[in-house]
From TrEMBL:
Residues 1-13 have a biased composition (Low complexity). Residues 50-185 form the AAA+ ATPase domain. Keywords: ATP-binding, Nucleotide-binding, Repeat. Belongs to the AAA ATPase family. CDC48 subfamily. It comes from the Archaea. GO terms for cellular component: cytoplasm. This is AAA family ATPase. One of its GO terms (molecular function) is ATP hydrolysis activity. Transmembrane segments: none annotated.
Length: 266
């Protein structure tokens, strides 16, 4: 039995609401992925092939995985997550077989999204790699070419090093869309801060605008750490000040964010 793909965490209920900033990027992703999955016949009618692959590239922690999960969730597609490094290490010698299994599973459970995290580790330039790398890239190419336009399977690859992807994979019919997911600016950071403090009881003295201005260089993952650290600081503070404190009343204050800012670096 093929069994589940390398790792198959569910898309985890992630929605577009969980993504801060990245409005334009998200629009592009939706345009590229939602329509082919929800209404593949539109493309057939127009006599064009729907896109099969999208490459999301940018620094770590900027939301590439988040976007892939959100799209899968919003279009009700099966989300199959595959770690690139795992394919070459854990399934060493059986990497191609593993890839075939993953695509077979994707076809069976279509509509589906196959998400390759750190795809550069399995799709590096063939010239640079050894025999094994060459075979894996070759297998991935042929599996993507083999995806029938009517089979609503879309492959999303994420990478921090788009230049190291084999050019053959970046041609039409394969990963023919590339969307850059960059480091957020101040407005983006503000939105991400809002996402991560949405369910947090904030004290009145917390100024999210000010936090956005003070977190230059932070990506989404850093902001996630920052808000978590601030909340934990609030908890520690409350217990230190009053061992009988009702934890249900604890609020996260500006001072808690100050401590967190001192502890979390981008
Ligand atoms: P990597 O290349 O390391 O896999 P990535 O770009 O896939 O990074 P994610 O895994 O999507 O990054 O993000 C990690 C965590 O950071 C998310 O679970 C989320 O909590 C937070 N995060 C990142 N970007 C955003 C964002 N734009 N809005 C809200 N949260 C974000």
């Amino acid at each position: 039995a093929a069994g589940p793909a390398a790792s198959t965490p569910p898309a985890g209920g992630i929605t577009y609401e969980d993504i801060g900033g990245l409005d334009e990027e998200l629009d592009l992703v939706r345009e590229t992925i939602e329509l082919p999955l929800s209404e593949p016949e539109v493309f057939a009618r127009l006599g064009i092939d729907p896109p099969k692959g999208v490459l999301l590239h940018g620094p770590p922690g900027t939301g590439k995985t988040l976007i892939a999960k959100a799209v899968a969730n919003e279009v009700d597609a099966t989300f199959i997550s595959v770690s690139g490094p795992e394919i070459t290490s854990k399934y060493k010698g059986e990497s191609e077989e593993k890839l075939r299994e993953i695509f077979a599973e994707a076809n069976e459970s279509a509509p589906s999204i196959v998400f390759f995290d750190e795809i550069d580790s399995i799709a590096g330039q063939r010239d640079d790699g050894g025999d094994m790398e060459n075979r894996i890239v070759g297998q991935l190419l042929s599996l993507m070419d083999g995806l029938d336009a009517r089979e609503d399977v879309i492959v999303i690859g994420a990478t921090n090093r788009v230049d190291s992807i084999d050019p053959a994979l970046r041609r039409g019919g394969r990963f023919d869309r590339e969307i850059e997911i960059g480091v957020p600016g101040e407005a983006g950071r503000r939105e991400i801060l809002e996402v991560h403090t949405r369910r947090m009881p904030l004290a009145d003295d917390v100024d999210v605008d000010r936090l956005a201005a003070r977190t230059y260089g932070f990506v989404g993952a850093d902001i996630d750490s920052l808000t978590t650290e601030a909340a934990l600081t609030a908890l520690r503070r409350a217990r230190r000040d009053d061992s009988e404190v009702d934890l249900a009343t604890v609020e996260v204050t500006r001072a808690d964010f100050e401590s967190a800012l001192a502890a979390v670096e981008p």
